[in-house]
Amino acid sequence: MYTIDLAYVGRGPHEELVSYIADQQDFYADAGVHVAVRDGSVWDPERLRRGAVIGLGRTLLSRMVGGIPWVALNVNTQRPQFWFLTRPGLDSLTDLAGKRLAVHPHHTGPGCFTRIMLRQAGLDPDRDLETVVRAPGDYSMDLRRLREGTIDAAVVGDTMAPLAVAAENGWNVLAFAGDLFRIPTVGVAVDPTHTDPEDPAVQAVVRAHRRALRVIRDDPDTTVRYLQTFLSGHTADEVRAHYEQFIAPSFGVDGQADLGTAETAIAAVAAELGVPATFTAADFYRTAPTAAQTALSFRNITQRG
Questions:
Q1: DSSP state of 98
Q2: Contact in structure between 76 and 153 (CB atoms under 8 Å)
Q3: CATH fold of 82-180, please?
Q4: Please, is 16 exposed, middle or buried when counting C-beta atoms within 10 Å of its C-beta (0-12, 13-18, 19+)?
């Protein structure tokens, strides 16, 4: 059996659900790989590049800024899973002008994407509103500050079901990021300097994750049961509503990136970071079958014949 380290770099179902399903359903074992899932949220890029990584936003940015030649071998979604949650009285992104917004750091995927969306709405994130920068993950302090009124809005991820939280507190979900900015994100990436993309262990992980994506599409009951593990502070009905509105329509099944969407997104990210886009979408997102996948498909066809 092959072995591999697989690190996630953010918390919540958008990062962890696919690998969790692959583990719980024994898809890794079926693919012949033992996967050690690691929390790489605070790892530096040099440590991350030694194994496979789930987060694609962070690897895209570190390739663009740091020159690490990451490649993405599997993509879960093209709709970033975070939301603008606000106190009452704010009805559009332009209403954030002059307000206090809790955001992710600008060098993270969500932080960079948020700045792009604010600019698209005609707001300068450095001048037109007050940003309160905090680390991603646990947004409980954001909820406390919203209740206290010390912030007016927060960009939150899917460690909660934001519609349910908003309804409970009388707040607004101003926007879903996936409706405003598309970029192929969350999946499996490796640095070819250290890990061959066609390594059998890597390809086994990709196959297992694509099986898990099909579970998300085809088996809502199983998916919601696993999703409840991550959203344990919500009722079963709230978790199912979150799945039906945001996860089922957002996650793909074939692990492939839309290169047109990716090319536009890479240009926008490069412009926001103030660096040249030195690679194309096809350089970063590997959409064509690898030699290993082709050989496996050929063997399966031969065996069936």
A1: T
A2: no
A3: D-Maltodextrin-Binding Protein; domain 2 (3.40.190)
A4: buried
Q: Where are the alpha helices (DSSP H) in the chain?
A: 13-24, 27-31, 45-48, 56-66, 109-120, 140-148, 162-169, 177-180, 200-218, 220-230, 236-242, 259-273, 281-284, 291-304
Confidence at residue 288, expressed as pLDDT on a 0 to 100 scale? 59
3-state SS, residue 121:
coil
CATH 3.40.190.10 assigned to 2-79+183-304: yes
Find the distance separating the first CA and the last CA of the chain, reported in whole Å: 26
Instruction: Using the structure block, give the residue that is written with the tokens 């206090």.
Output: 100
Smallest CA-to-CA distance from 76 within 171, 12, 154 is with 12
| Chain position carrying tokens 């800024």 | 65
Give the whole-angstrom CA distance, residue 25 versus residue 219.
12
Q: Scanning the structure block, which residue is given the tokens 């492939």? A: 256
Query: What pLDDT sits at residue 41?
Result: 86
Query: Tokens at residue 15, please?
Result: 């990062």
Q: Is this structure's pTM higher than 0.85?
A: yes
Distance CA 90, CA 154 (A): 12
**Domain positions in the chain:** 2-79+183-304, 82-180
Tokens of residue 45, six digits: 């890029």
Residue type, 87: R
Q: Which stretches in the chain have pLDDT values below 70?
A: 137, 288-305
